[in-house]
Amino acid sequence: MASMKAVRIHHFGDEGALNYEDVSVPEPGRNQILVKVLAAGVNPVDWKMRKGGYPSVDEADLPITLGRDVCGRVAAVGSDVENCSEGERIIAFIGEGRGAYEEYALVEANEFAHMPRFATTNEAAALPLAGITAWQGLFDHGNLQAGQRVLIQGGSGGVGHIAIQLAKAKGAWVATTVSGSDIELAEMLGADQAINYHEESIEEALEPVDMVLDLIGGETQEQSFAVVKSGGILVSTVQEPSEALANLNGVRVAWFKAEPNGRQLADIVKLVEDEKVKIVLNRIFPLSEAAEAQRVLEHEHSRGKIVLELL
Questions:
Q1: What's the CATH number of domain 130-255, 3.40.50.300, 3.40.50.720, 1.10.8.80, 3.40.50.2000?
Q2: HSE-up of residue 82 (Cα within 13 Å, Cβ side)
């Protein structure tokens, strides 16, 4: 059986728990494709899983390969897959139980979309999880409509910078919080109001909004209730919002975990191809340096996405 390189964890811990090792190349099932990975995105869920802080992964599941974002070339197609052929380039947000930090990855038929034209493989690998998280938060859970006002907490990160652009493409008015060094980036992405959270209070700087997309949690989330209109909604992907604060302010809340969705991903790809969504890259690392990539994402300020490149 052929072997490949993969980055796996055999126990929970810091970056030292990541092992760059040889594993067998998997065989695709009837509804799967085998993808030769060209690049893999690095996301907060990866280091949370590595540290043992992800609820659906416990000791009994180890060892596992990390990574949920992939851009690659189709190497083999399952017998029941009809919407792609060998050699095509695709992107996917991979479901739980499989990984992307490896030379060949398994992707379900309903998870992928064709790679955006004109995008590089690194840019394409940065899109799936961030794009789908932003899409599902804004539209599936927040029901954001054209003409509404939305605040995106954390607009310069992997999800946030995509969320700004998706909301603008929908026709919403968009405010976002960023550090002072990212004000120009937020404005370039289309934000109508960029708030330096180091220097400004959102309650003082911002008129009430119909929706908050919280990508930060903690005190930032609690403070967000003050700027949501009565009857509006606060949606978070990082922490369950307080029902007590929601009731006190007359606000609805939602907490969600993004799920792979190839149809939604294809819609996001179309927006990239129409130049309505730009993908911002932070740093690129080789697969063998996945530990350093996770360290940077977890402990340093991140503008845009970090990607692992497989040459």
A1: 3.40.50.720
A2: 1
User: Is the full-model pTM beyond 0.90?
Assistant: yes
Which tokens is 270 given?
């179309």
The CA–CA distances, whole Å, from 239 to 157, 201, 215, 226, 234 equal 17, 21, 9, 17, 11
Query: What would the pLDDT profile of 48-63 be if each residue is shown by its tens digit?
Result: 999 998 888 889 999 9
pLDDT in tens, 189-216: 999 999 999 899 999 999 999 999 999 9
pLDDT at residue 56, rounded to an integer: 83
Superfamily name with CATH number, domain 3-127+279-309? Medium-chain alcohol dehydrogenases, catalytic domain (3.90.180.10)
Which is nearest to 255 in space by CA: 241, 274, 276, 275? 241
